[in-house]
Structures are given as C-alpha cells and as structure tokens.
Specification:
The chain is an all-alpha fold. It is built from 24 helices and 4 strands. The chain is globular and about 70 Å long.
Length: 534
C-alpha cells in the first residue's frame, strides 16, 4: 500500500466525517443529548466526529455502495459462491472464467483497507488518548475483523498485525497468523463490550450512528461471538484444535451467539446494491446452481428469493427461455447479449431491502456441524440443530411449510434443463436428516441447506464450498485460464492486485512464500486442507 495514498485516504476520511457532522448539526434531533445521570456522557466517551466513522466502516464490512459491491463481491464471490452470474456481454474477461482484468483484482483488496483503516486509526488514537473510549475501539475492532476476514479469505496472507502497529507499507502475515490475531481481537472486544454493558446496561452511545444494531452493544457481542463460530468452522481442517476451542467459547460466552432472527445483522443502506446491479443495471442474474437445487427440492422460499423468467420474443430456437419459470444462468459461459441474459430469474430485492451480514439460520447450521464434529455446542443434536436452521430460514423469509420440507426424503437437486447449456445434477442428496449415515453424507446435508439459507452471502458461500466441497457445483462452460483443472476444481482464491507489486514489492514477494504457491486462482489457502472433497 502506497504511503501517500494511505495518508490521503485518512485525510479524506476525516474530511467526509467532519462534513457529515457540520451538515448534521443543522438538523433537529441530531443526537439525543439527554442522558440518565448514572450513565456516561459524551465528554467521557467521545464526540460526534468520532462516532461518524462507524457508518463508514460498516458500509465496507459488506460493501453496500453499488460500485464497491459490484467490484468487491458481485463479480467475485457471488459468482464463485453460485448465487449470481454475469450477464454483461461486454466483460469478455472476468472472474467466472478465471481471467479477471488486472484492475478488477484491486478492489476486493484495496477498498476494505482504504475504508477501514482510515477510520480505525483515528478511533484507535482516540482510545490511546482516553481509555474510557475503549468501547468505541472494541466495536471498531469487530468491524475491522469482519472486513479483513473477507480479504484474507479472498487472497490468503494479508497485512494485518503490522498495520495495527502503525506502519504504512507493511509486511504480510500468514493466513494462520491473521486468523489467530483476529480471534484475539474479537476476544478482547467481547470482554470490553461485556464490561461496558454490565456497568451501563441502558447506554447506547452510538445509537444514531450505528446502522446495524442501533448502538445495542449486547447484540454486537452476539455478533462478535457469531463471527468467532463462523471463523472457527472455516479453520476446522486447518487447525482442528483451535477451531474446537474458539467454537465452544463462542457459544458458551455469557451473551452467546445469534440464536433468533430478531438478532440477525443487517445494514440499513439507502440503496440496496443487489437491486442496483441486477435490476437497474442488468449486469447479473441468478445462478443456475442454487435454482436447480431449490427447484428440485420444491423449496417454498423460491418466490421469496427469485423472480421467474421474462422471455424475450426476439430470442428463439436454442436460446428460447420458458415463460414464468424459475431458471438461473450457468456460471462461466459466453453471454450472447445482456438482453438475452436478462430473461433469466432475477433477485427479488427492492431498492429499500436491508443488506444481510449474518443470520440465526447460518449459525444453527454451524452448530449442527460442530456437534457432528464432536464439539460441545451447548445442547442439541446435529439433527435437531439442522432442523432448527431450516425453520429459522423459513421464518426469516416468511415462507411456510418448513415441516413438510425438512421431512422430504425423496426430492433431489434438479438437472439444469435450459436449452442453452444443459447439465446433469451432480448431487443426489435429499433433505430429510439421514440418521446413522456416515459423516460426509450428513455434512453434505448440512452444507447444502446452509448454502440455501445463507442467500445472498456470496463470500460465505464460496468459502464454505472451498472448505468442504459442498454443495456440488456445476463445472464452468468456459475456462479461459492456463490451468484447465479450474473447470471442475474452481477458484481457490484470487490473485493479489497489481498495486501490491508496484508499491509493496518486497513484502509482496515475501507474501508469495507465505502463500506457499503461485499467485493465481489455483493455490489453496491455509485453511483449505480437506483431502477427501468430492
């Protein structure tokens, strides 16, 4: 990372925040300055300009500005996680066929660093100067972990611990070191926020600045523990001992993890990025993979997730699309035209839809896998927690019929029957829990239903599929990469951005040694160690 660029971003961040304060100060009820006499006031815990940085950090944890979302997630992990696919025929090179333009490689790396660390450094400085602001820094640490977790799971080794020491052009940590540091940061943040809420149970000093939980620190503690569980499972094959320890800590901590949909984490952003990119721009449509699974399962959530097809009469013959069907589009294909691609099923998100970060359903499935692995998840069997995940997801999407769905022992993922790029289903896994089945069969059941329930979290979908091999995804139709094994093996990571070679060459070269392989789409990450993937 270039020093001048980094410093410029910090100055720009301050300017943006100060503008927000000045403009906001002219409005009524900018912040409720009344307080309970037993609670801390703003003089003790910060001021407006400090608080304004939290929305900036939250907006990049899961990128919500439409351009940031498209470059950091939509074209990358939404495609690799088989939730969405590309319908812009102008992008002849892209991630789906493993040859993304060099400029595309920069955003998933640079955007989080630019947006997180400018704000994080100022919040840290404030805490260093006044220990009473520890709760602000604790939340900043949680947001930093959430954002950098996405970065390390995209690339592998990244700068993390040395950034915290104040360096600008910094060396990378191994991914194992990054995970260890993130666990430590989450544990410290949980301890600080737990102490705060017990001393000041009714205080919400960030109420007007927190777009996710309205300043409710108890919910942030649950979120941090939920991140610990998510991350623990991610390293289940990389470091089984640490994975078990972190997972069991997460569910046993006083406030625990997210258990109900009322605690799901959503960012309330003025314009939903899925609606902007898919509906207004027409650059993406729903992936064939998730639609064929859900169609085969007769899933009642189909209409909550997706629209039906809208065939265009000018496309006939081979490219004819059926009317009013749920039909996704294969990943890694040659798009005849954007208008052709736009005939396929779309997202149902509106411009005002909230943006999901993590859900109770995902965490129920996470606990089910933990029990399957012999971990203490605080009660419940793998089967009961699996069913709980299904029920929670149906509730989240206001769908009925979860009981019949979870007892269906015959429905299987459907073939892809579109005339353009037909394909046979690669999985025969059914929904009803298979009592007495082997570990891999039950794991495939959990991961398949978890994948459906995690919609539309593409980064988590891609990461969990890389980790376990489930669900089973269709191969790409076109592979424009020298490594033709990617056709079925699929992307293990994405290459580092060219800017790292230009501005941080010594540390970039060292990072390749830490990566343990070439800087390409095929080199596996540290936690990607499962040997018996399907």
């Amino acid at each position: 990372m270039n020093k001048n660029k980094f410093l410029y971003k910090i100055k720009a961040t301050v300017a943006v925040a100060l503008c927000a304060i000045v403009l906001g100060a002219c409005t009524d009820n900018f912040y409720d300055i009344n307080k309970n006499g037993s609670e801390p006031d703003d003089e003790e815990f910060g001021d407006y300009k400090l608080k304004a940085f939290f929305s900036q950090m939250q907006n990049i944890v899961y990128p919500v500005q439409e351009n940031a979302y498209q470059m950091c997630q939509n074209l990358v992990s939404d495609v690799y996680g088989r939730y969405l696919t590309i319908t812009n025929d102008g992008w002849k090179t892209n991630y789906a066929i493993f040859n993304a333009p060099l400029g595309w490689l920069s955003s998933p790396f640079n955007d989080p660093f630019d947006q997180i660390y400018g704000a994080w450094a100022i919040i840290k400085k404030s805490y260093d100067e006044d220990a009473d602001r520890a709760h602000y820094f604790a939340l900043a640490q949680i947001l930093r972990v959430a954002a950098m977790h996405r970065v390390t799971d995209s690339y592998g080794p990244i700068p993390y611990s040395k950034v915290a020491s104040g360096s600008i052009v910094v060396p990378y940590d191994t991914q194992e070191e990054v995970y260890n540091a993130m666990f430590t940061d989450l544990n410290d943040a949980i301890a600080v926020l737990t102490d705060f809420v017990e001393k000041y149970p009714n205080s919400k000093p960030l109420k007007e600045f927190d777009q996710v939980y309205g300043g409710d620190y108890v919910k942030w503690i649950k979120y941090a523990n939920s991140m610990k569980l998510r991350m623990a499972l991610r390293i289940a094959y990389g470091d089984p001992v640490l994975a078990k320890k972190m997972a069991e800590e997460a569910v046993s901590q006083k406030y625990g993890i997210i258990l109900t949909n009322s605690d799901n984490a959503y960012n309330v952003y003025p314009k939903n990025p899925y609606h902007k990119v898919c509906t207004e721009w027409g650059d993406s449509r729903v992936s064939a993979d998730i639609v064929t699974y859900m169609v085969g399962y007769n899933d009642p959530r189909l209409g909550q997730y997706f629209t039906t097809t809208s065939p265009d009469e000018k496309f006939t013959g081979k490219l004819e699309v059926p009317k009013d069907a749920f039909l996704g589009l294969r990943s890694g294909i040659t798009i005849p035209s954007k208008s052709w691609g736009m005939q396929y099923s779309n997202v149902t998100f509106t411009n005002s839809s909230k943006v999901l970060w993590i859900s109770a359903a995902e965490l129920a499935f996470a606990k089910a896998e933990g029990v399957l692995r012999g971990w203490n998840m605080g009660g419940g069997t793998a089967e009961s927690l699996y069913k709980e995940g299904i029920v929670l997801s149906f509730e989240q999407w206001n769908a009925s019929g979860s009981g019949d769905y979870m007892n269906d022992d015959t429905s299987k993922p459907a073939d892809y029957t579109d005339k353009s790029f037909p394909a046979k289903a690669l999985s025969t896994i059914t929904i009803k829990w298979k009592t007495g089945a082997d570990f891999e069969t039950n794991l495939e059941q959990i991961m398949t239903q978890k994948w459906i329930a995690m919609w539309p979290l593409g980064m988590e979908s891609w990461s969990e599929q890389r980790r376990t091999g489930y669900p089973r995804f269709f191969p790409v139709v076109v592979n424009d990469n020298a490594d033709q094994s990617l056709t079925t093996k699929l992307a293990a990571r994405i290459p580092y951005p060219p800017s790292e070679k230009e501005n941080n060459l010594t540390n970039y070269n060292a990072a390749l040694q830490l990566l343990g392989g070439a800087d390409n789409y095929s080199t596996k990450l540290w936690w990607d160690k499962k040997t018996n993937k399907p």
